[in-house]
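note to self — DONT lose this again. spent like an hour looking for the file last time. sequence + predicted structure for the chain T wanted, 300 res
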Amino acid sequence: MSLERCPIGCVPIVWNNADQVDLAPQVGHDEILDAYVRLGYAGTQHGRGFPEGEALATQLERRSLRFAELYSALPADAGGLTDDAEVIARRDLDRLVAARGEVLVVALDGSPERDAVSGRVNGIDGAPRWPDQAFDRLAAMLGELAAAAPAGVRVAFHPHTATWIEAPDEVDRLAARLAGSRAGLCLDVGHYLVGGGDPVEAVRRHGALVTHVHVKDVDPVVLARLRAGELAGFAGAVRERIFTEAGNGALDLRGVLGALDRIGYDGWLMVEQDSSWLAPAEAAAVGIRVLRYAIGELER
């Protein structure tokens, strides 16, 4: 199946970073959605300041846009998910469904213990790690969420730097537990790179479990500084623009797309950039143009 059939969406974080609100002045959702239409995007992640439910569905429908995903970050500590994590996940699934959304992207909230080793989990002896039972509980909850989702709605887990599931072996541990469930993986190729992995190999390794993809490039100079301990954790790296425009960093974009094509991937390709030295709309324009060009090259 050709990747040209995959819808391309955008994550509005480059406009409205929910974690570091000073990185870009907040703009209204109307401005962001109108920019998507001009640039040719097919859908969006829910963003800071966006409406909810039917109000969001109406805003998207009148622009012929789709509600591609809602991001649900769950609280966790060294022992695993906290007691309120499942309530938050169920609430966010309901929010997604109420606005006619398509994918619930589940991740873990950042934690100070892991932020201290962000980008170098496998390079530090004694780095804090989750016990097996924490992976068991998370996998069970993801499977239950996916089973509860209505037809046409997917649940995908997003490994994320500065959280308890970042390094490739940690992704492997969760993936092994998801086999046979309806839950999949959201492969954020940028975070997987930061965590020390090869995104091309991740696609090959996890195959059909990869049901959602975030396209994100990584500045190798800033990554080296993060791994050397020169930056104030992941937040400091984002302030230095560790995630750069597609085609401008260390990501083997063609390799990733080729691997996705070989497994018959047909899900969303979500362009994401947490921060940029460019104006948000300029960064989003670069992302979709580079991605479309690379897909076209793959097809030739």
